[in-house]
Structure formats: C-alpha cells, structure tokens
Amino acid sequence: MRVLLISPNRERLPDPVFPIGLAYIASALHESGHDLHVVDLCFVDDIKVTLKSSIQGFSPEVIGISFRNIDDVSYPRSVYYLPLYRDVIKICRRYSDAPIVAGGSGFTIMPEQFMKNLDIDYGVVGEGEATMVSLMRYLSEGGHLPDGVITTTMNSAKPLRSMDWKRLRPLREVFNIKDYYEKGGMLNIQTRRGCPFRCVYCSYPKIEGKTIRSRNIREVVNEIEDVVEQTGVEHFFIVDSIFNHPRGYALRFCKEIIKKGLKIEWNCYANPGLMDSGLIEMMLKAGCSGVEFGTDSLVDSILNNLQKGFRYKQVEEVSKLCKNIGLKFCHFIFLGAPGEGPEDLKKNIDRLSALNADSSVIMAGIRIFPKTKLSFIAKEELGIEIDRIGLEPVYYISPKLFNEIDRIVGKISSEHKNWIFPGFEINFSERLQALLRRSGIKGGLWERLPFR
Ligand code: B12
C-alpha cells in the first residue's frame, strides 16, 4: 500500500529530537513491501504547503501520524501540542480520503482521549511495528475495522510476533538526518524497551510495558557503527528509560563499544541508586559524555512518597563518584512534589547546590497523567477531579508550596546559572539552543552551557 507517514513534532526544546519511533514504523512497513513517503514537519516553514504537496504528489492509501508529545510537561510554560495536531489532521482530510492511523508515546498515554478529541480512524497503542503491518495487511485485503479500534501488541492476549522489533533497525535515511544533527546535535538509539520502576507520576511503564526486553548487544553496536560510517554522526542519545538497569547489560554494551574502538559520544538516563564506580568508569571509556539522573528529590521522605527506591545518601555517593571519575552528570529534580513543605524544599536546594552537578534540570510541579498514583494523590490533597486529568495539562504542586513556587524559582535561578528551569525558560531558551547549535556544538547542551 502507499503509506504516508507524518511526524508533526516541531518542538525545539531542549533540542529538536529525531523521530526514532516513526523511523521504526517506516522500517517495519518498508520490510513488508509497502510504498512509503515521509513528511517531517520539524523544520518546514509552512506545514500546509508541505502537507498539501506531499499528499497530492503521493496519493496515499493510508496516513500514519506519530504523536510523540502531548504537552511539554513544564509548568508554567505548559505548551500544548493538540491544536497543532488538529491543524495537521484537518489539512490531511482536506486533500485525502485515506484513513488516518495514530500512534506514538503521547497517543499511547491517552488513546481514548486522542480518539475522542482528534479526527482519527485507527489508533495503535504501544510499540507499533507488528500492529501497523497487520493493520495494513487487513486494510489492503479490503477489511474494514470499526472506526476507532485500538490494537496493541504489548498487552493483547495474542501478541503478533510476525514483526520482531529487535531484528529491525529504524529507517533513518528517509528523514533529514543532516538537519537533526546540525540543529539537534545528535541522533538516537534504542537498546531495550520496558520500564519496571514504579515512580508514582510516570507514564513510561504504560508506554513501553513493565518488562524489559533487550536487543542483542552486538547488533546494537553494529547499528551504531553503521550509522557513524554512513552518516558521519558521532553523537547519540540512548533513549532507554533507564540505561544502568540491568547493570550486566549496560556493562556489556560499554565493553562492546570499547572492543570495537568506536569513537562516539553519548548521553543517557540513569537511576542514581543503581550506579557504581565500575560501571561509571566503563561508561566513560565507552564514550558516555554525560549522564542524566532521574533523581527527583534529595529528601528521603519525598523520595519515599514518589516510590523512587533509592535514598539521598546514594545520590550523594554517586555524585561524588562521577566527580572523582570525571563523568559529567546532571540531576532532574521536582519542586513541589507530594509532601514537600518549605523545610524540605530548602533542604532539597541546599543539597543540590552541595552536589555540585554539571547542571540540574528543575521542574516546578509534576504533570499529572490519568490513572497514575499521583492522580489519586492530587484528587485527595488538591481536590482535582479525576476526569479533569486528561490531555490538557494539569500539574501537581504540593499545597504547602502552592503560592510560593514561582517566587522560589525566581530566586534560586539567579543564584545558579547552570540550573535549567524548562517551564520558565530561565538559563536556557530556544534562542540559546539555536545559537549553541549554530556555533557547531554537538552532544548534550546541559554539559556545555556557557554560564557554568
Ligand atoms: C528519550 C526521551 C527524551 C530525550 C530525547 C533525546 C533524543 N535525542 O532522542 C529528551 C531528553 C531530549 C526528551 C525531551 C523531551 N521529551 Co521526552 N522522552 C524520551 C523517552 C524516554 C523515550 C522516547 C523514545 O525515543 N522512545 C523510543 C521510540 C522507539 O519509541 P516511541 O517513540 O514511543 O515509538 C514507538 C511507539 O510509540 C509507536 N509509534 C510511534 N510513532 C508511531 C506512529 C504510528 C503511525 C504508529 C502506528 C505507531 C507509532 O511505535 C514506535 C516503535 O515501537 C520518552 C518516554 C518513553 N519511555 O517513551 C519521553 C517522552 C516522549 N518525552 C516527553 C516529553 C514531554 C518531552 C519534552 C517536551 C520534555 C521537555 N519539556 O523538555 C521534550 C520534547 C523534545 C522534543 N523536541 O520533542 C513525553 C511525551 C508525552 C507527553 N507528556 O507529552 C514522554 C512520553 C515522557 C513523559 N513525560 O511521559 N525526551
């Protein structure tokens, strides 16, 4: 079938991000013999002109759209992408009768709400390779599913095994790799799927499932080697929810890169409770230039409320190890998490300053996702009705700090120029991002902020 794939993500912060999810779908469709055309709206000037000419030139039989983000989860900026998505779908409908299939992490978090709010025919929840291929087969045979059906490979009783994602590589070459490298400073790579952790606010287990499924390490490293050879890109982000778990897998990945002598730089997310000097040294040797810890808080009672599974002492220990060994690191911290009062907040900030990380990313408040434990806490503590928690972003801010948060951010941000406050665009902004990338800087920008 002729399938048009659209990536409507135009977000530039913290960087434009290569649409690896859609590239996996493109790969699955390509392997199954479908005729593909890809429209990536990230860098185009006029989305209407671009979509119109692609649709008219290609006459798609099916249109697949990847909804990666719903909003930027950043209070108070709180950018909401649904209006853009509505425009994109409206343009598709104007120039084509092809059914529209939705997928992506944003879609997967709230499939029913997407189906209700956007003019979509079919939706694919979770990883989409096998399901999209099955759906295409069904449609090409003239099958007609009831509109709005949501299929899933991850949770269904009879998983479709015909298209194993672990064997696939994302089809990167149909996207504009050059623009992403120039304007976003890196490409991305996935080594495993699944998140077994139970953080009260998080959507990752819903998107990827709770069970970790890892790819063959040799195959992952061969893929990196081929990307380097074919594209000249040498900077990567490993998009796995948590890089350092399981530890053995992470170590073997590093060893394979070292063995091959690959000259690359990469970043990843890590759990600060599961790090040790052996792994840090190995990561550094394998080209990891900076690690982003999902720390969330530096106060034990708050870590407990968030179900983080590690304590402040471990964060302190791992920060010292990183400093001593020479691996750059950054802590992601929430202000206003459940249970946080002025005393805890002060402790949080004082401890964060003392850790002396290369950077810290500070979120004021936590975006509430439906059916998470946080949504029930928000109902109980703040009276936020469960049915108000949906696509339009609503944030949890501890009632003890509710009226203080903006003032506190204003104060601490002026004292810490290497701390980034996404929702406030303080110490980092779209302008600075573009400026740094224009000057040729590659890799994670938090490692290279000019005012550190
Ligand atoms: C790694 C990551 C980042 C890295 C990316 C680095 C890089 N260069 O790649 C960084 C730190 C930069 C980042 C930034 C942001 N991120 Co982020 N990120 C992730 C993470 C952990 C993995 C994304 C990923 O690449 N997955 C791997 C690919 C293969 O999976 P996938 O995209 O889901 O695709 C699969 C399916 O969804 C499906 N699919 C995808 N498209 C389509 C299309 C069709 C037609 C079909 C059928 C199926 C389908 O099939 C694919 C293959 O199986 C996710 C959380 C998660 N666990 O998913 C959050 C996530 C995507 N991010 C999110 C957000 C909000 C952001 C930011 C806005 C945060 C901010 N304020 O800075 C920015 C936006 C950046 C941008 N320009 O878009 C949210 C989006 C949901 C939401 N709430 O809106 C997520 C889900 C996390 C969360 N909070 O819940 N992010």
Layout of helices and strands:
Layout: E1 2-7, H1 20-31, E2 35-40, H2 47-58, E3 62-66, H3 82-95, E4 100-103, H4 105-109, H5 111-117, E5 122-125, H6 129-140, E6 150-152, H7 177-184, E7 187-189, E8 192-193, H8 204-208, E9 213-214, H9 217-231, E10 235-238, H10 247-260, E11 265-270, H11 277-285, E12 288-296, H12 300-305, H13 312-325, E13 328-335, H14 342-355, E14 359-364, E15 366-367, H15 373-382, E16 395-396, H16 405-415, E17 419-420, H17 430-438
Parallel strand pairs: 1-2, 1-3, 3-4, 4-5, 5-6, 7-10, 10-11, 11-12, 12-13, 13-14, 14-17
Antiparallel strand pairs: 8-9, 15-16
The chain binds cobalamin (B12).
Residues 9, 11, 13-18, 20-22, 24-25, 64-66, 68-74, 101, 103-106, 108-109, 124, 127-129, 132, 165, 186, 188, 190, 203-204, 207-208, 237, 239, 241, 422 line the site of cobalamin.
Describe this structure in words.
The protein has 452 residues and is α/β, with parallel strands linked by helices. It has helices spanning 20-31, 47-58, 82-95, 105-109, 111-117, 129-140, 177-184, 204-208, 217-231, 247-260, 277-285, 300-305, 312-325, 342-355, 373-382, 405-415, 430-438, and strands at 2-7, 35-40, 62-66, 100-103, 122-125, 150-152, 187-189, 192-193, 213-214, 235-238, 265-270, 288-296, 328-335, 359-364, 366-367, 395-396, 419-420. The radius of gyration is 22 Å and the shape is globular. Mean pLDDT is 94; it is low at 154-161. Cobalamin binds next to helix 1, strand 3, strand 4, helix 4 and helix 6.
What is shown here, in short?
By secondary structure, the chain is α/β, with parallel strands linked by helices. It is about 40% helix and about 15% strand. It starts with a strand and ends in a 14-residue tail after the last helix.
